[in-house]
Design brief:
The protein is an alpha/beta fold. It has 14 helices and 24 strands. It has helices at about 10-25, 25-30, 50-55, 65-70, 95-100, 130, 140-155, 160-170, 180-195, 225-235, 335-355, 390-405, 410-425, 440-445; strands at about 1-5, 35-40, 45, 65, 75-85, 90-95, 105-110, 110-115, 120, 135, 170-175, 205-210, 240, 245-250, 255, 260-265, 265-270, 275, 290-295, 305-310, 315, 370-375, 380-385, 385-390. The strands form seven sheets. It has a seven-stranded mixed sheet. Strands 10-17-11-12-13 form a five-stranded parallel sheet. Helix 1 (about 10-25) runs parallel beside helix 11 (about 335-355) and helix 7 packs antiparallel against helix 8 (about 160-170). It starts with a strand and ends in a 7-residue tail after the last helix.
Amino acid sequence: MARILVVGGGYVGMYTARRLQQKLKHELRQGTVEIVVVDPEPYMTYQPFLPEAAAGSISPRHVVVPLRRVLPHCHVVIGEVTAIDHDERKAVITTLAAEETGEGAIQVAYDELVLAPGSVSRTLPVPGLADVGIGFKTVEEAIGLRNHVLEQLDIASSTRDPDVRDAALTFVFVGGGYAGVEALAELEDMARYAVRYYHNVQPEDMKWILVEATDRILPEVGEEMGRYAVRELRARNIDVRLETRLDSCEKRIAVLSDGARFPTRTLVWTAGVKPHPILAATKLPLNGRGRLKCTAALQVEGVEHAWSAGDAAAVPDLTAEPPATPDEPRATCAPNAQHALRQAKALAENIVATLRGGDITDYAHKYAGSVASLGLHKGVAHVYGRKLKGYPAWFMHRAYHLSRVPTFNRKARVLAEWTLAGMFKREIVSLGSLENPRAEFELAAGTGRHNEAS
């Protein structure tokens, strides 16, 4: 039996495994091939929908895709790969059961390795960041941030202390890429709608601040559309600060490099990502940014039976202009969903060709462009040379991502939620207690809070 080990259940991992189970139906039935998928979570998160989930436009359950449902012919292991010895073709996996029983990690042998662990948030040694910062890479963080923002409105509404009120109504987002801009725009939209139900909080009382270290935001949509996005955000009274860094956030005070100081209870960090730490523990060749050096065929450079794509891989972009001199490195594919989805398909096809003795092919895709949402009915897009803004760009953003979210089940549910959201008012309920569901019972059991005679 040939065992294919897929490390990671995100874009590349899930789509590669899904394609493999489609192309290797005969081998899977005969038992000559086994596909093992390892991921710490039992689902794949469709990250472009996280801002809408945070704004309440989509249910959190519909932003994720259950791995066991879409990969019925694969062996899904919920755990984390902690070490890989590719010379011996063995991986060390820590599972939930191993932690409970104390038996330690398990070893899994493999024949073909697909490394697709994705990326993690890239943090900087900013004083206080680890204590108060909020990330925006997982569905849990998105929903937690929604609850947090609504909770700040409750705090501001119920206090007469001006310092507490100002800090509660100040929201600082660091990072002007997709995650930061879309999260800020959607949440500002949601909060501005929510304050109409607060008798003593007005939209102009809130301060929304976007901090970006470079001279523009949303570089993927082009310079012109990036400037439009800045104008659109500033027209909504959002303070966009370019060429500015976060120097400190100790004691809930955001100190910026331009000297500004903002007491705040909300600091969202979306300033980039970095490759998953497991890559550094594999002894496989990495580039200067910690990504695996790969060929255009998505094989790890100079290593047999090891493959990678997506955030983890530095794949040569065959459609880009060749370097001016032979010494210069060739441009690599951007680590985004557009390439990841297509690379996953090509990667699976090459593994199938390898197992069946066929020829592998190089991956080549010319970047089509980007779309970004700036809140309800607002957006920017630069697709195939055409520039769109406002409602058309927002509609394209929704249509594109609806077409890309996996499974008909998820497409139908998301479309139904969008339709209902257009017919009814926004939900403005905070369910922060879900993050600690046993708190009420622990309080009652420990203090006798509910001590009525039974």
